[in-house]
Design goal:
0% strand; mainly alpha; 3 helices; elongated; 73% helix
Length: 84
């Protein structure tokens, strides 16, 4: 099966959206109940998750994908500023 460039871009965008949704959900599940009572281990885990996801995201420098990433990170930073 051959993918057109448009199909490839759509798949990339869908994958990125799913990954960013997972990231927000993961922070909610791991840290919501601990609000502001984070241990050093919590901070380390949260930072590792952020680093892994950010390093693994492929945006090809497309502005709309970079904007999605920035919006998601801003929402997480708003709810969990200790991790930034």
């Amino acid at each position: 099966m051959t993918l057109s460039p448009q199909d490839y871009e759509r798949i990339m965008e869908d994958n990125l959206k799913e990954e960013l949704e997972w990231l927000e959900e993961e922070f909610e599940q791991l840290f919501k109940k601990k609000k502001e009572n984070y241990s050093q281990e919590d901070i380390t885990i949260g930072n590792r998750i952020l680093d892994q996801v950010i390093d693994g995201i492929k945006t090809n420098n497309r502005e709309e994908l970079l904007n999605l990433l920035a919006i998601t990170l801003n929402r997480i930073e708003h709810d969990f500023p200790e991790f930034f």
